[in-house]
Design goal:
The complex is a heterotrimer of chains A (about 260), B (about 350) and C (about 290).
Chain A: E1 4-15, E2 23-35, E3 40-44, H1 51-58, E4 66-71, E5 74-75, H2 81-90, E6 91-94, H3 108-118, H4 125-138, H5 155-167, E7 173-177, H6 185-202, E8 205-210, H7 213-219, E9 222-227, E10 230-236, H8 237-242, H9 247-255, H10 259-262
Parallel strand pairs in A: 3-8, 3-9, 6-7, 7-8
Antiparallel strand pairs in A: 1-2, 1-4, 4-5, 9-10
Chain B: H1 2-27, H2 32-35, H3 49-56, H4 62-74, E1 80-81, E2 86-87, H5 88-123, H6 128-142, H7 145-159, H8 170-176, H9 188-194, H10 198-235, H11 238-245, H12 250-287, H13 293-302, H14 306-334
Antiparallel strand pairs in B: 1-2
Chain C: H1 2-9, H2 11-28, H3 30-33, E1 65-66, E2 70-71, H4 72-108, H5 110-124, H6 128-139, H7 143-170, H8 173-180, H9 185-207, H10 209-221, H11 233-240, H12 255-283
Antiparallel strand pairs in C: 1-2
Helix pairs in contact in C: 2-4, 2-12, 4-5, 4-7, 4-9, 4-10, 4-12, 5-7, 6-7, 7-9, 7-10, 8-9, 9-12, 10-11, 10-12, 11-12
The chains are: A alpha/beta (about 260), B mainly alpha (about 350), C mainly alpha (about 290).
Amino acid sequence: MPAIQVKNLCKTYVRRPFLGAKVEKPVLTGIDLTLQSGQVLGLVGESGCGKSTLCKVLLGIEPITSGSVEIFGENISGLSRTSWKELRRKMQVIYQDPYASLDPRFSVYQLLSEPLQIHGLYPNKSERKKYLRELLTAVQLDPVILDRYPHEFSGGQRQRIAIARALALKPQILIADEPVSALDVSVQAQILNLLKTIQRERKLSVLFVTHDFAVARFLCDEIAVMQQGKIVEQGPAEQIFEHPQHGYTQKLLSAVPSVEAAL
Amino acid sequence: MMRFVLRRLCLLPLVVLGVTFLLFFLTQRLSPEMRASLYVKDPRQMGALEEVIREYGLRDNVFKQYGRWLKNVAQGDLGYSPSANMPVLQALKKYLPATIQLAFVTMILVVFFGVWFGAASAVHKDKWQDNLARFVSVGGFSLPIFVLGLILLMVFYGQLHWFAPGGYSIQTDIIIHGGTFKTYTGFLLIDSLLNGQWRVFGDVFSHLILPAITLCIGSFALMVRVMRSSMLEELGKDYVRTARAKGLAEYQVIYKHAGKNAIIPVITLAGIQFVRLLGGTVIVETIFDYPGIGRFGVLAAQQLDIAGILGFSLLVAVLFVFGNLLCDLLYTAVDPRIRLE
Amino acid sequence: MRLLKRIYKNKTSLCGLILVTLFALTALLAPVLAPVENPNNPYQLPQAGYQIEPHPPSAQHWFGTTEQQYDLYYGVVWGTRLAFKIGITVTLLAFLIGLLIGGIAAYFGGKVDEALMRLTDVVFAVPSLVLAMVIAAMLGPDLKNMMIALTAVAWPSYARLVRGDILSIKQQGYVTAARTLGASGLRIFTRHIVPNAIYPSVVVASLDIGYVVLTAASLSFLGLGAQPGTADWGQLIAMARNWVLGTPGHPLAYWYTVVAPGGAIFLFVLGWNLLGDAFRDILDPRQG
């Protein structure tokens, strides 16, 4: 069973002004996408093509206009609140901006224990602490930082904390929405390596959203190329890089200066 | 843009209704006898209050009473004001021109001196002129108008005998009510000129000066600040440097180029302040015994003259809401970068 | 701590801090500075005789006495305490109401939001001094009613402030992040949104104390607040009104009746304004 199966998904934003007719803005128009279990699917496209909207729909933050999304065979439209909560344990997300995604008033301990609190896991305090220390070690951070606050860390360190938070619920699917594009190039490579290690160890299914082909090639088994709310090409990573079929993919690839050098 | 104006115009009566209903609701705390004065048109009727209470159903529920009050307002009947000893509508008509006159003169003072001080402050940044202007503006913000008003009264009336409180002197009163003086606009400053009465004009003007100076203090302080920062910003821009590089004289650079652009935010601010002055007139008119709408409101409030209070609040709300709308429009008209949403 | 350091560096804001601190000390030490004569009501001014005419400063009455021999020094000292009492009570109450209303408006949005915001429009439709004056008059002139009137006109600006802050915090990444962790709406609101939205508003609100005290003094001056004989600055200035013209030949004879309470209120408001300017500069994100 595929981890995520998207069929003919459409998303239209509607704005209704005080006076005058409503304005419709289609963002996703007929998306078909499959993320196989245990694989890394790269979703590549320029900014504004609808990548982030697709993530929001998958995460249930934005409602679906039409079409269907199935996660482990379960259709997400019309899910009850409790089913959504269950689903969140299986599917977690890493956001682009590690400066925005961590509440500045929360210590690392509070940040990481929030998902556990919400889902009632590790109620015993010492066990919870032990688990959180393991998590921090897994993302290659020093476990002593539990009492510190986000503003004391660099962008790369924050993103590691965000990854640890996403892993806290032991999800099977990880959605990574441009997780490295806000970071320095030197830090990017470290985070990408970390994601690769974690994915292999935990056999995660990852939807990796990026605008950067070089990054996608390093990490992904499959690539889907997105343009203006449509998937124009999907296939195994090697095939997309060696023999791009669609003109848009070719154009994007030719704009990448040197794939090898970037890594 | 049109949408914004329409929306605001739709909300306008709602807001005014809201204010008057709120106040009307508060009046219900008072005894029906006190409220009966709302419906009394003639002081001779004041004796038969119980009759009035029954006649107008002052023991009915609030909504019914409010509806009746609104109906009366729609017909131009705002009730009788014991504190002013005349119908409320007549009192408002009588006192409003004096207040507008006062606010107008105040605004001229504010803009003129505000721009002058502010510009001087910016041009002579960090010199004594600047320090003085900044000191005055911080001080002006903090000096309560009733303290300033009393000090001015002490010095210019008590000590120097230059200006007197009130709206005009007894001699002027005799001329105005002597029968030959024609009322054209209700604004004494204008009417006196139209009547060719220079002495009346001078007298009215001299009674205006102290209240106007007192009233202008807060807005003046704000104006100096805005003009100063606006001017500093303009003086730092490339076109000013270009003008200097061209070899223009410094005063031309300052007045023809920088000054012209720097004044834009000041003008819009002046519009906003004009509306805000309404609050200050309450205090100033009381101190100087100036026969305007503010003093009428205070007297009504002090004597629990409900009809007067409601009429005063209604007028102020309408003026204030309209004024604010006009300011917002003015603001967009002057600065095309601002879009109203 | 960083705030204090920056205030210390700026000369004018340091002046503000010193002024406010001095007033706060005066308020705290009022019983020491001016011993109470009537323990039942320390805000009642002691009267030295019943002569109408004010008396100039002397060894017994440092600031002189005003109409009916009320001691001005006592009035200024205890007036400071009263000013803080009024300022803090009104600001705190208004802020709590504003927090509640603004929070409800932002949390529920839609029609609830629209209705509550129109309610704030209603209060904003009249200048705050005028509205407070009218409300105080209707409730009857005394100290408590004046505080109610001031609270009634002050809360809408906090409601709007809090609402705006909450709406902008709602857009923050960590709110979406909490949602994707499975947090409920209420949990997000109370654990993430409110704690982050509240702090800037708290600073802004506390700096309004000076303005509240100024408005309170205006109401007392108009006879719609503290009653005659109360140690209240506005009330003392109202009494001075009868004496601005002095005696024949000595027009400035009673200057102290205006200068003592007037100077107190001026310095008090000045202190808060100077402090407020510094805070606004610091809070302004454009200044980094």
